[in-house]
Amino acid sequence: MGDQPTLAVVGATGAVGTVMCELLSSRRNVWGEIRVVASKRSVGRTLFVRGAELPVLELAPDVFDGVDVAMFDVPDEVSAEWAPIAVQHGAIAVDNSGAFRMDRDVPLVVPEINPEQVRNRPRGIIANANCTTLAMIVAIAPLHHEYGLKELVIASYQSVSGAGKAGVDALLDQLQRVAGDRTLGSRSGNVRQAIGDDLGPFPAPLALNVVPWAGSLRDAGWSSEELKVRNETRKILGLPDLKISATCVRVPVVTGHSVAVHAVFGTEVDCEDAREVLRHAPGVILVDEPQSGEFPMPIDAVGTDPAWVGRLRRSIDDPRALDFFVVGDNLRKGSALNTAQIAELVAAELTTRA
Amino acid sequence: MGDQPTLAVVGATGAVGTVMCELLSSRRNVWGEIRVVASKRSVGRTLFVRGAELPVLELAPDVFDGVDVAMFDVPDEVSAEWAPIAVQHGAIAVDNSGAFRMDRDVPLVVPEINPEQVRNRPRGIIANANCTTLAMIVAIAPLHHEYGLKELVIASYQSVSGAGKAGVDALLDQLQRVAGDRTLGSRSGNVRQAIGDDLGPFPAPLALNVVPWAGSLRDAGWSSEELKVRNETRKILGLPDLKISATCVRVPVVTGHSVAVHAVFGTEVDCEDAREVLRHAPGVILVDEPQSGEFPMPIDAVGTDPAWVGRLRRSIDDPRALDFFVVGDNLRKGSALNTAQIAELVAAELTTRA
User: Fold this and answer.
1) CB within 8 Å: A185 and B255
2) Do A300 and B189 touch (CB under 8 A)?
3) Using 50, 70 and 90 to split pLDDT, how confident is the model at A198?
4) B16 is in an annotated binding site
5) What CA dihedral angle connects A86, A89, A92 and A96, to 10 degrees?
6) Are residues A58 and A86 in the same domain?
7) What residue of A is the nearest CA neighbor of B252?
């Protein structure tokens, strides 16, 4: 290979892939050749990356010839099939799907938290976490290191772009249908009537509503999204016995996942100390001046890299517990950015080794 | 007094007052004369109650002459001044503000839970709870009676009508300003720019956003709304040592407060047993078939009386904990309906006594 490693971006035309191309154009350039790859129906399109117009290549085995790092943002079943093919062709795969996250031989990496895990990849695959987990984990990890995390109770406020471009289109279409009718939302069913059956990827209308469901049904009433948050948080923090209850809820926000966190620690916490920990935590910005209207919100956090943390309070009835609110851009840190950061760790390793 | 007691509705022209007039027209009629009362600026208007057109009376001491029950839905400071005046004039006051809720000599009544408290009113005043507390409490109380409640962690998804008509107008105006622009919500600050400075009663835009703030700042970073939920829940359930952490968040929904609840009990819970408890609980409707898209949502619960409960799961890591999602109409059970129910208990008492 040349001085700088070759990168393939698989799923480059999707909602996350689009942000990935922007990040590759704006972050420090560590890549040699970049190839953008998508399904057959996107072939013929071009994408701008680092100021150059790149043709979209069709996903096929030989697209990985000479590739050092392949980033995947595609559905689980596509990753399950194609990440191993990329590895067979000599690439290291960084996968943003759920296909490999809980595989014991695949590390689940958040560069601010467990960067050393990136080298522990017997299958040649490194996994990126779920967007809801990533929205909160960079704020939780430094508090865990300070106080020893025992339990998490979280409730999410997840944006529609977590369900891709189809999710964004569904919400924006619905908003156009309800805007201007000042009776909607004040009588049972009238929002459903106005919106009709075209719900996009969601089980219910999102405009003027919140939908306590994300993902698919798993055992005992839990959603797949809620189990991901539990299992991935445990794996990233290296806490296999951490108690976690999550309720995942979709809200009418375009981009930016918010999470209300109740974190119980092994020792008493001091709120001002905790603020100091967060002020110095990588990937975190503390926004906590409620008296002047400053708290983390999706309309501010969207398009930015860090986790925005605020509303920090020590629980009144438990001196070992902290309550706070955290917002992260689900397309950036929640997926494309964390994937890019992992890939950059691999690039640094390959460049050093070369 | 005649056969049926005389009722005054103070604050009859507001968002809650409007629902109150609807309820008085649709519920079993237990009232003799009804007077609708508001501030001076509403005098000259008329309101329809029980099919009759009633002139709005100006709030003044003599408006309470001959009144048996006076329901107040006005700001705290107006209630603080005027509820005692109504009592001096011989009325029993049922107050929906925060002015008296934590007064030891004022019962805080939810008729499904503690109806006997309605007679324990040394000041002649009975308080109605906060809308967020009321959204969840009728679901929590029967589970407490079955399993013994020890701790609550809750996160709310509160609608804009909790801030009155001004809140509803603000959201609907904002939606008209953002609808049709498909770039909004995808870049930091562009929703703020589109909406401008006219935020209504909120500290930030609500369209395409969630705002982790309701009420005013209290000690140690807690909002008044979060403290109300804690203190009122303890008082209604008669559990002065109950551990509660609440995070209150405003969402772009017109009417219907949702709450994600994590409830820890003294004994192990069985999810199917808990469902059975909720099926038989007064004021509760169980909506818990996620496989067919049935879970509680504001667009369905709005305009209805019960608390809609669903997404019931036993915590994976704590057999004594239940997670669930509950939605109630904040203008009905959350304020006007519960006030009407309390007033009806008083009416029954007066009618029996007469």
Assistant:
1) yes
2) yes
3) confident
4) yes
5) 0
6) yes
7) A208
Which residues of chain B have a pLDDT value below 50? 1
Interface predicted TM-score (ipTM): 0.96
Q: Scanning the structure block, which residue is given the tokens 């390793």?
A: A349
Q: CATH number of the domain that B55 lies in?
A: 3.40.50.720
B-chain CB neighbours of A316 within 8 Å are 220, 222, 230, 244-245
Radius of gyration of chain B (CA): 21
Residue in chain B closest to A318 (alpha carbons) equals B243
Same domain, B159 and B307: yes
Task: Note whether residue B2 is domain-resident.
Answer: no
Number of domain units in chain B: 2
Angstroms from A32 CA to nearest CA on chain B: 29
Q: Supply the angle between the helices B224-237 and B131-147 in degrees, to the nearest 10.
A: 40
Q: Is residue A153 part of a domain?
A: yes
Q: Which residues of B are catalytic?
A: 131, 257
* Token digits of residue B60: 């003044």
Residues A266 and A179 in one domain: yes
Q: How many CB atoms sit inside 10 A of residue A254's CB?
A: 27
pLDDT of residue B353: 75
Domain for residue B1, yes or no? no
* Nearest residue in A to B240, CA atom: A317
> Domain range spanning residue B11?
7-128+335-353
- The mean pLDDT of chain A is 96
> What integer pLDDT is reported at residue A21 of this predicted model?
94
Give domain status of residue B50, yes or no.
Answer: yes
Integer Cα distance of B292 and B286 in angstroms: 14
**What are the chain B neighbours of A168 within 8 Å (beta carbons)?**
186
Instruction: Name the minimum distance, in Å, from the CA of A25 to any CA of chain B.
Output: 17
